[in-house]
Amino acid sequence: MRLAEEPLRPRMTALMPPTFRADRERVLEAVRQDGSALGWADAKLRADPGVVREAVRKHGGALQFAAPELCTDRDIVLEAVRQDGSALRFAGENLRADREVVIEAVRKHGMALQFAAVELRGDRDIVIQAVQQEGWALGCAAIELCSDYEVMLEAVRQNGRALGCADPALRADRDIVLAAVRQNGRALGCADAALRADFEVVLEAARQSVAALEYASEDLRSDRSDPALTPASVRANPFAVGGSAAVVCSVSELTATDCGIAFRASVGLGGRELKGTLPWGTSLGHLGAQLRIEEGKGYIYMVLPGGVAPVRPVDMNKRLADFIS
């Protein structure tokens, strides 16, 4: 038969006669193309370490088709989880309690933590490696690690919504919440009420996702706040929140002239000089926007003459004239 002379194709394995599925060379060729082809192999070959090893190298999840005794073979399971961390679910109980095996698994796929033995889900180093891959893996960790500052910070940097797993004290920690909303603005919904009323925290969240404004306090979204946090004001605000990576613009001069307010500033590490004149009635935000345009990217830290700390985003509507020296 012509069919018998052609290489076995993995997608066709289920249609192959039993003699083909028991042919070691043909099955090896199949699993090297598609590890899941192991599922159609003869039981004898699913208990063959060489065949199974080739299969899991191609597709770690093929471990589910291996004979039970090979699911407790450390070398084979290591091959599987290095290819697909979630293959840990098919490993024997002894290997789901093996620290090295679990570390290899979570390095590849953080959510593999859920398949680890209970005692390893409380191992701080393993959990940190898991959440660095997938922040949501924190939900699989021992409950006491949800109040660990470093673990939580790593988790929210990878997935801001992991903030929902945090201990209430950490959901009220400003640095943790800022890290979370910078990754996913909607994580604001998991923050403590006091931080949902913090102008800069909400601004950072809205910059990542304007939909985050729905979680802001009513005061920040109303005329009771100056400036009110609206999609338009979020886009217009040029000032960076502390802790952000941003260019520093140092304003060295603000001078009243017949035409308006003249300014001189230097931008960035190179100290590129900029100067111009803005009309009377201009705000700090207008000057910041001008410097931001000249810089051409991101947000800025703007330091005024004689100042040390940058202008805060909440001060964008203050009159520039009030800062003329």
Report on this model:
The protein has 325 residues and is of the alpha+beta class. Helix content is 36%, strand content 9%. The chain contains 15 helices and four strands. The chain has a four-stranded mixed beta sheet with strand order 3-2-1-4. Strand 1 (247-257) and strand 2 (260-267) form a beta hairpin. Helix 6 packs parallel to helix 8. The longest helix has 12 residues, at 284-295. It is elongated and about 95 Å long. It starts with a helix and ends in a 22-residue tail after the last strand. The model is unreliable at 1-9 (pLDDT under 50).
Record keyword descriptors for this entry:
325 residues, 9% strand, alpha+beta, 4 strands, single chain
Using the alpha-carbon principal axes, give the shape: elongated
* Radius of gyration based on Cα positions: 29 Å
Low-confidence stretches: 1-9
Broad structural category: alpha+beta
Q: How many strand segments? A: 4
Q: Which strands sit side by side, in order, in the main sheet? A: 3-2-1-4
The residue fraction in helices comes out at 25-40%
Order of helices and strands: HHHHHHHHHHHHHHEEEHE
Q: In what range is the share of β-strand residues?
A: 5-15%
Query: What's the end-to-end separation, in Å?
Result: 96 Å
What oligomeric arrangement do these chains adopt? single chain
Number of helices: 15
Q: Mean pLDDT, as a whole number?
A: 91
Strand count, sense and barrel status of the largest sheet are:
4 strands, mixed
